[in-house]
Amino acid sequence: DVKVTQSSRYLVKRTGEKVFLECVQDMDHENMFWYRQDPGLGLRLIYFSYDVKMKEKGDIPEGYSVSREKKERFSLILESASTNQTSMYLCASRPLRRFLLSPLHFGNGTRLTVT
Amino acid sequence: DAKTTQPNSMESNEEEPVHLPCNHSTISGTDYIHWYRQLPSQGPEYVIHGLTSNVNNRMASLAIAEDRKSSTLILHRATLRDAAVYYCILLRLANAGGTSYGKLTFGQGTILTVHP
Question: Which of A113, B9, B59, B102 is the most buried (most CB within 10 A)?
Answer without folding.
Answer: B102
